[in-house]
């Protein structure tokens, strides 16, 4: 949507909304910087005992870096516009930079959440699969590939290939030109929506539902096995005595002792398995919570962008602040994702 048609049309009520979201962005950014500082300090001084799993460290570091990038390069301009209720993104260079940073970090966070879901899915349902071994053995490479993939999608509009970054809504936010009627723009925008939103959306839902169902069945089976194997030792001794009644007394005692040792070993193995499954369930809960907040925040903006894409712009023209408001609100997801990941990981290990 072109800024020339909407600039200067911010009402007092819309200004209140913008200042509210600006205040939320400011608070979230300060909290993020505090958490990021503490995380890297603890990681540096307590390398052996830092509170998060080594398995998730590359994902956490990637999310933290992406959030810091958007906080320092995109959020300041957005805050000034929100608090003053004026558009300062009409400069082409500033708009391109703003759109490129926001689009890149948004895609990167989507890939990180998908990576978390795939880690849970393959580690629980396909532990011996080659793809699971690849994810486990190349944690840093996975994060780097996600970053490169997000840049590959966000770089063409910066060079005005396929699409371009233009001010959107009331001009406080720059994004893709969703309503460009050219064929190459339609192909690019449809590819972005299909590959980077629709496919990950259903894959994340599928993997998390399968993980929850599998963990539920495994935990139920493990609890039943645990209750069965934790019978009193006396009952096991009596059963052993009945079975071994035809043997001499020495063989009876030996049978009882062997049975007791086997029961203790099985009970210990079942207990350890139950603890691992409970940890897996907490990880699954963490992944579901992150995915839910991401889609909850980004879905309104995706719906508005889709309306622009298919040409249904009557509602958007009546309320031009909605695309901008939803886009600014979506930035909260990029800032909050690493905070949620760090603190939910602490809960897993507590």
From TrEMBL:
UniProt keywords, alphabetically: G-protein coupled receptor, Membrane, Receptor, Transducer, Transmembrane, Transmembrane helix
Major location (coarse): membrane
InterPro entries: GPCR_opsins, GPCR_Rhodpsn, GPCR_Rhodpsn_7TM
G-protein coupled receptors family 1 profile domain span: 31-341
Transmembrane regions: 16-35, 56-77, 97-119, 140-159, 187-206, 321-343
Localization, UniProt: Membrane
One cellular-component annotation, GO: membrane
Gene3D superfamilies referenced in this protein's UniProt entry, alphabetically: Rhodopsin 7-helix transmembrane proteins
Record GO terms (molecular function): G protein-coupled receptor activity
Coiled coil: none
Bilayer topology: Multi-pass membrane protein
PROSITE patterns with a match to the protein in the record: G_PROTEIN_RECEP_F1_2 (PS50262)
Annotated protein name in UniProt: G-protein coupled receptors family 1 profile domain-containing protein
Organism, as annotated: Adineta steineri
Lineage summary: Eukaryota, Metazoa, Spiralia, Gnathifera, Rotifera
């Amino acid at each position: 949507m072109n800024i020339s048609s909407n600039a200067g049309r911010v009402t007092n009520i819309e200004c209140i909304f913008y200042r509210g979201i600006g205040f939320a962005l400011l608070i979230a950014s300060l909290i993020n910087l505090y958490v990021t500082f503490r995380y890297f300090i603890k990681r540096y001084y307590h390398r052996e005992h830092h509170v998060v799993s080594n398995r998730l460290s590359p994902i956490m570091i990637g999310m933290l870096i992406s959030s810091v990038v958007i906080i320092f390069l995109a959020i300041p301009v957005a805050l000034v516009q929100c608090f003053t209720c004026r558009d300062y993104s009409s400069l082409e260079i500033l708009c391109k930079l703003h759109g490129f940073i926001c689009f890149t970090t948004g895609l990167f966070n989507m890939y990180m959440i998908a990576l978390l879901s795939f880690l849970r899915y393959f580690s629980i349902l396909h532990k011996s699969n080659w793809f699971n071994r690849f994810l486990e053995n190349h944690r840093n490479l996975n994060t780097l590939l996600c970053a490169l993939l997000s840049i590959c999608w966000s770089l063409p509009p910066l060079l005005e290939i396929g699409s371009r970054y233009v001010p959107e809504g009331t001009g406080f936010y720059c994004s893709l030109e969703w309503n460009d009627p050219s064929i190459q723009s339609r192909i690019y925008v449809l590819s972005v929506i299909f590959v980077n939103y629709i496919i990950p959306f259903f894959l994340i839902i599928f993997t998390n539902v399968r993980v929850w169902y599998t963990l539920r069945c495994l935990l139920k089976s493990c609890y039943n096995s645990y209750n069965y194997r934790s019978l009193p030792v006396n009952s096991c001794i009596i059963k052993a005595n009945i079975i071994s009644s035809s043997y001499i007394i020495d063989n009876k005692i030996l049978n009882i002792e062997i049975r007791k040792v086997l029961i203790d070993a099985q009970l210990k193995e079942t207990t350890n398995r139950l603890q691992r499954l409970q940890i897996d369930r907490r990880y699954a809960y963490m992944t579901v919570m992150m995915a839910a907040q991401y889609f909850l925040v980004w879905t309104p903006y995706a719906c508005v962008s889709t309306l622009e894409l298919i040409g249904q712009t009557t509602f958007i023209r009546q309320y031009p602040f909605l695309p901008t408001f939803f886009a600014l609100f979506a930035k909260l997801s990029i800032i909050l994702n690493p905070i949620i990941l760090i603190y939910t990981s602490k809960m897993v290990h507590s």
